[in-house]
Specification:
heterodimer, A: mainly alpha, two-stranded antiparallel sheet, globular, B: mainly alpha, cell membrane (chain B)
Chain lengths: 297, 294
């Protein structure tokens, strides 16, 4: 008994901060939020068990829930692929034989590191104002820009552009992946007179598939969770006409503006399930297009 | 071709290939320069706007102010009921303590996972990896209720204490990856010399892992400095605001007339991040490639 204790002592001692955090701040809250999602709870009075009512109401009657889902899906489906295409394009241009690569890398990565800041969100609001910079540029080319932030048809695009602007981190991961592709493959393809398009689809894409997959999953999860940009640009409410009602913004408002903590917990669980489902789908389809070097297939 | 030796043909081929490579390189540079201009333009525009008079900001594409309004900075500094001295101080306190907490507690956990043997390790490790995937929004509400009941809302404790409990599994993961590369023989030799696990952590693992520690510290700094949701939820009194919350009050209170000062404060708010980025660029970029952090 004493020996067992001594053998494990050091491990558990070093693990203890994490263990406490895990129970108090992770697993405990996860279970609590699952419980709260079946209750009506406004902080002031104790939670009141209502079974599946939150979920039933959400699905049957809550227009804003569906709107939030739609906005978030639209954002994910449009911004993630565009961002990855940009990231890959720039990474390929940066790949080899380019001088000053360090400078480019830093410049392209800079927006990603500042992307979460409120300063950038505020900047974006001004750039896309009707009298703002974007419309002035459009006017230079003779076009007349829309009211980006007031028109629900266009408002989401401001956030999509903001997301694409931050393509730096998938780009860096693509760069590392491109480096790992053996140069001889391209040389062999050239001898077979393969053009750039052929080389891209026959060598680059298949060999980069694990990295593309990694970036896809990571960016998708990030996109589902994005909050500050939409919160600031929509003035905290998802306006205009809920066109910027990201799922997280809706959740925040339900929880902290209207103190519907039970309902917001149910929303959080739906978000968790959606992210889990999308990740699972990505993993499931990946076996058809992602092949790792050390497996035969 | 008759009359040409194979050597001449090979030479011509090689020259043609070099010419094509050069043309491609120029094309790439043009593309890269144009793209990077688009990337930095908004940031430079913000810098310029912070020095322009208010009536010149909107729709002005130029990056050079016709006259420099440095007083935007002093105006912005005092534009809210509480001065930015307080906000910067608050942000500094929260950020510095968070960085310390993250580095210490995450390196403890990483050391246990990477170097120590104990029963149940695989299960705990799997659970730790699982927390990487849980969106913060799921734990946000119960954590809020917990801190509310502890009487911690309207203080910095909800923002700082979790950092001392290794809440950010990303950093644990990053450090585990690094610790595993260090030779095991070091620990074994030290153990034979009678070093305790803590001594090994402190005298061997820590000093050899400075790049990993620095990477974690830098990311921790940037993310805490930029964090908006945490302070938004936990801080209600303006004198407790961190810089991002203060910036937000700019647009929600009387945003309309004070664009120059607002951009001046925006620039100051990202200045620490910019400086960190300039100094530690290499480490940051290596950290991304190594771990896929955001």
């Amino acid at each position: 008994m004493q020996k067992f204790f001594r053998r494990n002592l050091a491990g558990y001692a070093f693990l203890s901060p994490w263990l406490i955090g895990f129970f108090l701040l992770a697993i405990g809250p996860i279970l609590a939020s699952l419980y709260l999602s079946f209750t009506k709870y406004n902080v002031v009075r104790p939670p009141q068990w209502i079974g599946l009512d939150n979920y039933a109401y959400m699905v049957q009657f809550d227009q804003r829930f569906w709107k939030a889902l739609q906005v978030t899906f639209q954002f994910v489906v449009i911004s993630v692929p565009l961002k990855l295409i940009f990231a890959l394009g720039v990474a390929m241009a940066l790949d080899k034989g380019i001088r000053a690569i360090g400078w480019y890398r830093a410049l392209f990565y800079l927006p990603s590191i500042l992307g979460g800041s409120i300063a950038v969100a505020i900047l974006w609001r001004q750039l896309f104002n009707y009298d703002g910079v974007i419309n002035s540029i459009l006017r230079l080319f003779g076009g007349d820009g829309p009211y980006w932030l007031a028109d629900p048809k266009f408002s989401l695009w401001t956030l999509i552009v903001l997301a694409i602007w931050q393509f730096g981190s998938p780009m860096l991961i693509f760069l590392a992946g491109l480096r790992a592709i053996p140069q001889e493959l391209y040389e062999a393809a050239e001898i077979d007179a393969a053009g750039p398009v052929k080389k891209f689809f026959a060598i680059t894409v298949p060999l980069l598939a694990p990295v593309i997959f990694f970036n896809l999953v990571l960016q998708m999860i990030e996109a589902f969770k994005s909050f500050s940009g939409a919160f600031i640009i929509s003035g905290g409410s998802g306006a205009p006409l809920d066109s910027l009602l990201f799922f997280t913004v809706y959740l925040y408002n339900e929880a902290f503006s209207f103190l519907r903590m039970g309902y917001a917990s149910a929303l959080a669980w739906v978000l968790l399930l959606i992210i889990a489902a999308f990740t699972a789908i990505a993993f499931w389809t990946s076996k058809y297009w992602v092949h790792y070097e050390n497996e035969r297939g | 071709m008759p009359g040409q030796s194979t050597a001449e043909i090979a030479h011509a081929y090689r020259q043609e290939k070099a010419r094509r490579a050069r043309r491609l390189a120029i094309l790439k540079h043009v593309f890269l320069i144009l793209t990077s201009l688009v990337m930095v333009y908004p940031l430079l525009w913000m810098l310029a706007a912070s020095l322009k008079p208010d009536n010149q900001i909107f729709g002005d594409l130029g990056l050079w102010p016709s006259e420099f309004h440095w007083e935007n900075y002093s105006k912005g500094w005092n534009a809210l009921p509480v001065s930015f001295t307080t906000f910067f101080w608050n942000s500094t306190v929260v950020t510095v303590l968070s960085v310390v907490g993250n580095v210490v507690s995450c390196s403890f956990a990483a050391y246990a996972f990477a170097r120590l043997e104990f029963s149940g390790k695989t299960i705990w490790f799997a659970l730790m990896m699982m927390t990487l995937m849980i969106p913060y929004h799921v734990v946000l509400i119960p954590q809020y209720i917990l801190f509310l009941n502890l009487g911690w809302v309207d203080s910095y404790l909800p923002l700082i204490v979790p950092k001392f409990l290794a809440g950010d599994a990303f950093f644990i993961f990053l450090m585990i990856q690094f610790f595993r590369q260090l030779p095991r023989e070091l620990d074994e030799a030290a153990m034979i010399d009678g070093c305790s696990p803590f001594k090994i952590y402190w005298a061997i693992i820590m000093p050899l892992s400075l790049p990993a520690m620095a990477t974690a510290a830098i990311f921790s700094f940037i993310w805490t400095w930029e964090d908006f949701l945490g302070p938004l939820v936990y801080l209600n009194d303006m004198k407790d605001y961190t810089v991002p919350l203060a910036l937000r009050s700019f647009i929600s209170t009387d945003g309309v007339s004070q664009y120059g000062p607002m951009f001046a404060m925006s620039i100051l708010s990202i200045l620490p991040i910019l400086l960190f980025f300039l100094v530690f660029q290499r480490l940051i970029i290596r950290g991304i490639a190594m771990s896929g952090l955001k």
